[in-house]
Amino acid sequence: MQETRQAILDILKRRGQATVDDIVADLRVHRGDSITPVTVRHHLNKLADDGLIDHASARPRTTPGRPQHHYTLTERGTALFPNNYQRLAAALITQIGHELSPARVNVIMEGIAVGWAADAQIPNGPMEQRLDAVIDYLSQNGYSAAWEIAPQGYYLYMENCPYHHLAHERDSLCRMDMHLIANLLGVVPRLTERMAVGDSRCGYFIPERN
């Protein structure tokens, strides 16, 4: 990434939120007076176009001049920084498996899938329209999904598993995906391929709805 834009992301990560004046002041500490508000706004616009930052409504200034936006990192921008999410998730799943019965773990995973499906807000309609919306949702969440027509239904494929390294050890994650797809589409899928057992992708047969 361009050096100045990375520095701006670093500032927003450290501050939580910042105005153009804040960012200019922080950059000048390390780079001198050559950094101008015009230059910073140019970089902010690019970062916003890339979905890495957002801004709140403009707030009045305490000094003369036009109101300034307060910029923050988006979820995508935050994800560029190191985190411990995967290790924490793996530890939580392992501990839940030790403390609870498989049936209780399945109930928890099903609840997660139901919540995710509700958040996705897939519009009701013909199956192929729903499949298009589901593919967009899954791909935005790291699954790299696609679908195709099959006799008496459809096939849905996922070329990437966002938690592949955990699914090898925990069948509950694969069952969670089954629940997720069932809730997104309104029909119960049949698993045909599974990366956790060595297949090149996960595949599901989606029967036609009556």
Structure characterization notes:
By secondary structure, the chain is α+β, with helices and mostly antiparallel strands. It folds into 2 domains: 3-78, Winged helix-like DNA-binding domain superfamily/Winged helix DNA-binding domain (Arc Repressor Mutant, subunit A, Orthogonal Bundle), CATH 1.10.10.10; 102-207, Trafficking protein particle complex subunit 3 (Muramoyl-pentapeptide Carboxypeptidase, domain 2, 2-Layer Sandwich). The protein has 9 helices and 6 strands; from the N terminus they run αααββααααββααββ. The protein has helices at 3-15, 20-31, 37-49, 75-78, 85-99, 102-120, 127-140, 164-167, 171-185; strands at 53-55, 71-73, 145-150, 153-158, 190-193, 202-207. The chain has a 4-stranded antiparallel β-sheet with strand order 3-4-6-5, covered by helices on one side. Strands 1-2 form a two-stranded antiparallel sheet. The longest helix has 19 residues, at 102-120. The chain is elongated. The protein starts with a helix and ends with a strand. The mean pLDDT is 88.
